[in-house]
Amino acid sequence: MKCPKCGSKDIIPILYGMPSYEVLKEVDEGKLKLGGCVISGTEPRYYCQSCKKNRCYPPYLFKRFSQPEDLRKAVTELRFGIGGFFGGNKEITIVKHENSAAMRVTCNDHRDRLIDFLSEISVEKWNELMDRLYRKLYLNEWKRTFESYTLDGEQWELDIKLTGGRKRHYYGNNEYPPYWKELLSALRPFFKEAGVKL
Fold first, then answer.
1. Burial class (CB in 10 A: 0-12, 13-18, 19+), 158
2. pLDDT tens digits for range 137-196
3. Architecture field, domain 72-193
């Protein structure tokens, strides 16, 4: 487990409910953090001892005077692009429809190889991807920009479209989020289907 914001592995579970003597001992030893007795289902799961913040919240958007909105159900489109001066560019776009999702993978590499692959994926695969992004990679807690200011390196973008015209944009220039390898692992099967190595 690592913090989705800073990447620290100095992260401990948050325990909810009435603590026992043994639990209080673990709290004193810095192995657990108490979260209180009131449980709503929207509480964070971990505490980052580096950031000094609660982390790993369930994937909900909160609005005043309304029920929390599940981000996994609000996403309508995902676009991920990665590339650099020496390695060419690769991009995937997946758009959710009612009973399926349309996928497009494009690739233009330094060998002048062009790929434009169209396919359809099941709603189940779409839901699995959303669940992975938001419940295992904690996408809703990532910073939006990862910048190292290095020239001639690798740039990447992740764009998420939500219902109601809302958008989330994540960007990196030779800098990556803590769950970068896990993001690539989640997207790799879709690129592989198009014959593109990610």
1. buried
2. 999 999 999 998 777 789 999 999 999 999 999 999 999 999 999 999 999 999 999 999
3. 2-Layer Sandwich (3.30)
CA distances to 7, 54, 166, 181, 193 from 94, in Å = 27, 31, 16, 20, 13
Contact by Cβ (8 Å): 11, 44: no
Helices (H), 6-159: 21-28, 71-74, 123-131
pTM for the predicted model, two decimal places: 0.90
Domain boundaries, the chain: 11-57, 72-193
- Residue 6 structure tokens: 């800073």
Q: Token pair for residue 120?
A: 């359809």
Tokens of 108: 């233009």
Look-up: residue for tokens 């990679």? 137
